[in-house]
Amino acid sequence: MENTEGSGPLRDGASSHELPPLFTYITSEGVAGFDTSSSPPGDCTVTQAAINSSNSTCINAGTPIISIPAAHSHNHAHSLSISLPSSPSALNGERIKGVVFSDKTEPKAREVCANNGEGTNASGLPPRKPAKFHSQPMHVGFESVSKFDQNLARKDRLKDNRYNSFKTWSGRLENQLSNLHGKSQDQAQISDLQDREAEILPAVHRYFDALEGPELETLKASEELVLPEDNKWPFLLRFPISSFGMCLGLSSQAMLWKTLSASPSLSFLRLSPVVNLVLWCAATALIALVAAIYSLKIIFFFEAVRREYYHPVRVNFFFAPWVACLFLAIGVPPRVSGDLHHAWWYVLMAPILCLELKIYGQWMSGGQRRLSKVANPSNHMSIVGNFVGALLGASLGIKEGPLFFFAVGLAHYVVLFVTLYQRLPTNETLPKESHPVFFLFIAVPSVACMSWAKITGTFDLGSRIAYFIAMFLYASLAVRINFFRGFRFSLAWWAYTFPMTGAAIATIRYTAEVSNALTKILSIALSTISTIAVSGLLISTVLHAFVFDDLFPNDIAIAITYKKPKSRKNKSLLNRTPSPDANDLEACASKDDAWIQR
Amino acid sequence: MAVEEAQGEKTPVHRVVPATFTPPPSSVDTVPSPAGKSSIVAIITSFHAGYFRISLSLCSQALLWKTLSSPSTDPHGLRPILRALPSFAFLLLWSLALLSLLLLSLLFVLRCLLRPQSLRGELSHPIGMNYFFAPFASSLLLLQSTPFIPANSALYRVLCCLLCFPILCLDVKIYGGWFTHGKNFLSLAANPTSQVSVIGNLVGARAAAEMGWREAGTCVFALGIAHYLVIFVTLYQRLVDGSVLPAMLRPAFFLLFAAPSMASLAWDSIAGDFDISCRMLFFLSLFLFTTLVSRPKLFKRPIRKFDIAWWAYSFPLTVLALAATEYTQKVKLWLPNVLMVVLTLISVTVTIMLLVFTAIRPNSMLPDNDLFQSPSTESRSSPSTLPL
């Protein structure tokens, strides 16, 4: 039985004939009940016969390096061989892992095979070839390699140790869970050099070094990933947090249709509240689904979630689930519930408050993540939650809490607005050309306008100022609509539709105050635009999901290495420091000094 | 621009000292005072405006006690509990504040007489220049908390004008410098202590409004708020990380929530009512306070050694407690009352602890030598011995 690929790249200093100490430890110490299992004798003979036929030459080829205590091999009727790769590299190609039911002679045979790297060509195996491992009792003939491959490919994706560094507790949680189910197991994996590298979280400057694009999604040419680029990763690893953007888009639509059907100045349209009900139910179902999937990701791939949290753009999407729930609460159809209980507001705002304390505090005092470095348009999503919460709270009749969030949001919005307008040279994430992400600029003024109106009770001067600012920004983006082309579709685009919807809702509110033909036309036009945008996105999403099958591509943004790959030439003009793991403070300061002294 | 590297720290911090800051070489007069020698002359020559933190804290504490002991409009509020403070204790505190202010002023005047060139150096220093507002702000706070002089008497008005005038002069000098000093000045020199200048303006605004001069109060308030906005944004951007503020000065971060609280108090006096803007400023300050106390790592280094900079903790807490007190006047709910009691207790405890520490270890208040001499001549000085 050959390996499906050649021997993978052997890592530094390890040759295939040197077995890792852990391997020797494990094979020498058997654990009763774990290393043994009773298997039907039929299996044993099949595999035994198969093994013997192919390994017959191995058995005679030299003495095993590891001596198994005789007691061990005699006591265990069947011993499971540990499915450890013989070379320390866990990131090889399709390494076959499996467990073998065997009898007492097997360990010897296995060790011998592993020692084939000594160059025993006489055994018929190519020199330095890693040992053969056989999968779970498969009664497929060993000669049908391709069928074997297919079955293995699917299984491998589940048990592939390359993704262990992204799993919770490096895969040990998954092992425990599958142990509980009595499935075949991979025991504790050897964490080798590359695994350890993958476990270290990249610093924030690495995200800017390695990625580019307005959403920091595209890998630069000189960079590498810690996960294989040519395979399709497990689904949970490919499920980004920006999927909550879909929930934002849909729930804001539900809000829009509720406002449309309830607005007195637009009652001539005679819109039915059923649309709101349908959209609301769809949005609720979607949020529940996305939240369930993402919770699975948190449980099984916590390291990947952590890397998303440290990504300068993705961190803002952590507010998205709560804001989407707030939209649902605001847009709840009257048929479903009357006035919501105040407790809902506190429950929804508590996570937003905690996230804010952490993230705004980082902007102020966290060295690596200060605002002049990480500011990008997606930060608006961190701020809009304050205003949406204020809007909901004020609609429920709460007095002080909404004002608290409005004040905090306003202060930080001013800072962010100024920073983004300045386009500081230290800020590398702002796209040079237009991109849908710019629509997020409209989000905060529109929602702030509505929430201030709710807090004060009237659509007064403050609300009007905010509304006019929102309209100005909308207009300046709309005239550049020609430039919004040629971008790769991504799920995050859903998040950019809710500002359009927010602007439409603010216009409807304004129409209630200043009711003339112009404002009515404007409100209908903006609502239509937003509905069309959402429908278009919906069709795109469905197309990508079912026809092109690339709705969830490999999420490369979270798989960057923690330091620049050594093999590639360092082509950056501003060489920061000799080594990236030198003092980050110094690196930032020296680069900033270079800018200042220009 | 000259870039100096400050040694003596594990992580090298680039300290940017613009060339315009160094005093002319002829005024260099390094008088090395041997470390540990606490002669009177040494104390005087090493004095600087940062010591007025002490008077600022004590005067604001006196104002807090006075506000608490004044009658409350909320019959169910918790203020009566705090009224249990005997008036004798308040008088003692007030006298202590007055004494400290007089003593510190005297020392400062003496130092200026002995070393005139140090004054100019201090006025140009990005951290030192802001503390010039502190004596005048402390005096105004003391004036407002004084039990003898009523707010509309002639003596009150005269003193108020006398004390506001230097604040306005300092405004013109320092804020004008932000515009004219050359590019990137503010982005380099802005640091948390810059808020002391804003606080000085806001205290002046409150004093004027209490007197009945609403227009003057509004004018000074507008000045303070406009510059506060600029500083707030600049600080949040933190263009150059950690270059201006050494680790021992991190207590100055507490000033972050002192400024909005003071602004809310000032607007309360101007508008006559703790209205929506005051509440928003108070909430902002509360949020910033929560952000800072949930980041204990930031203050781990300064905590190790008792230092004059510790006095920076007390004033912001006191002002926040004051703002909470005014808030409970307006909003008669149970949560603000609890908040007020908690904040007052924290502020009183911190002030008393600081007094005790200062009394026990007065030597820790003395820096080694006057570091407002030309920085280029004192070359490698460790940031922890920087003034303030």
UniProtKB/TrEMBL annotation, chain A:
UniProt GO BP: intracellular monoatomic ion homeostasis
How is the protein disposed in the membrane?
Multi-pass membrane protein
Which is a Pfam family this sequence falls into?
A: SLAC1
The transmembrane segments are: 277-301, 313-331, 343-360, 381-398, 404-424, 436-453, 465-484, 491-512, 524-548
Where does the signal peptide begin and end?
Answer: none
Q: Which GO terms describe its cellular component?
A: endomembrane system; plasma membrane
Q: Name one GO molecular function term.
A: voltage-gated monoatomic anion channel activity
Extract the InterPro entries matched here. Answer: SLAC/SLAH, SLAC1/Mae1/Ssu1/TehA, Voltage-dep_anion_channel_sf
Which UniProt keywords are present, listed alphabetically? Cell membrane, Ion transport, Membrane, Transmembrane, Transmembrane helix, Transport
Location comes to: Cell membrane; Endomembrane system
Q: Which PANTHER family match?
A: OS07G0181100 PROTEIN, S-TYPE ANION CHANNEL SLAH3
Q: Which family does it belong to?
A: Belongs to the SLAC1 S-type anion channel family.
What is the official name of this protein in its record?
S-type anion channel SLAH3
Gene source species = Platanthera zijinensis
Q: What is the lineage of its organism?
A: Eukaryota, Viridiplantae, Streptophyta, Embryophyta, Tracheophyta
From TrEMBL, chain B:
Q: What GO biological process terms does the UniProt entry carry, in alphabetical order?
A: intracellular monoatomic ion homeostasis
Write out the entry's keywords from A to Z: Cell membrane, Ion transport, Membrane, Transmembrane, Transmembrane helix, Transport
- The UniProt transmembrane annotation reads 84-110, 131-149, 155-176, 216-236, 248-267, 279-296, 308-325, 337-360
Tell me where in or outside the cell this protein is found.
Answer: Cell membrane; Endomembrane system
Gene Ontology MF terms in the entry: voltage-gated monoatomic anion channel activity
Keyword Manganese present in the record's keywords: the answer is: no
Provide one Gene Ontology cellular component. plasma membrane
The signal peptide annotation in the UniProt record is none
Specify whether Flavoprotein is a keyword of the entry.
no
Top-level taxon: Eukaryota
User: How does the entry describe its membrane topology?
Assistant: Multi-pass membrane protein
Quaternary organization: Homotrimer.
For this chain, the family text in UniProt reads: Belongs to the SLAC1 S-type anion channel family.
Biological role: Slow, weak voltage-dependent S-type anion efflux channel involved in maintenance of anion homeostasis.
- List the protein's name: S-type anion channel SLAH1
User: Which source organism does the UniProt entry give?
Assistant: Platanthera zijinensis
